[in-house]
Amino acid sequence: MSSRRVVVVDDHDMFRAGVRSEIGASVDIVGEGSDVDTAVKAIVATEPDVVLLDVHLPGGGGTEVMKQVHQRHPEIKFLALSVSDAAEDVIGVIRAGARGYVTKNISGAELVDAISRVADGDAVFSPRLAGFVLDAFSGAIDIASVDEDLDRLSQREREVLRLIARGYAYKEVARELYISVKTVETHVSSVLRKLQLSNRHELTRWATDRRLV
């Protein structure tokens, strides 16, 4: 069997280099991208079997890459590879057309297997993430309302929301995101206002009900 042709899209140079070194002997890495524009150019130029796609990218994110590529090449398959295991990220990229979603703690051998399966037309998910997708399609998660609410929040506000909902103190959130406690407070106030919530307990309940933590 000929080697699968793959484009790797991620905004971290070190991560792309790591993927190349980990799976480069088993697949043919024909291109790379670090943001929406460079990704679309590389994919359109090389027409790979599978694109390994990070969800959060400068210029509009992984969903924007898929949208632009699929307008011209609907046959190209995407496998999301992300640090995020948040329900809205998983469901967002699946709805945009990805054939699978795996997290970055996957081993090299598992990743090569996932690429091969996606290239053959299968759908591939890390086990925990498959549950999100089933819940979304069974109606257990109201995706439309989650999307609408989250669209009001900036990317940084979503990060703060998720950490607060997981029980982090403001100081811990500040340390985790490399921002000041004052900035965390500002973001939390903004999130509460946009979502029309009164306090962090309501925020935690809101996020838990929507499977965001």
UniProtKB/TrEMBL annotation:
Keyword Transferase: no
Domain of life: Bacteria
Record PTM 4-aspartylphosphate, positions in chain: D54
Residue intervals of the HTH luxR-type domain: 146-211
Residue ranges of domain Response regulatory in the record: 5-119
GO MF entries: DNA binding
Protein name: Response regulator transcription factor
Provenance organism: Kribbella pittospori
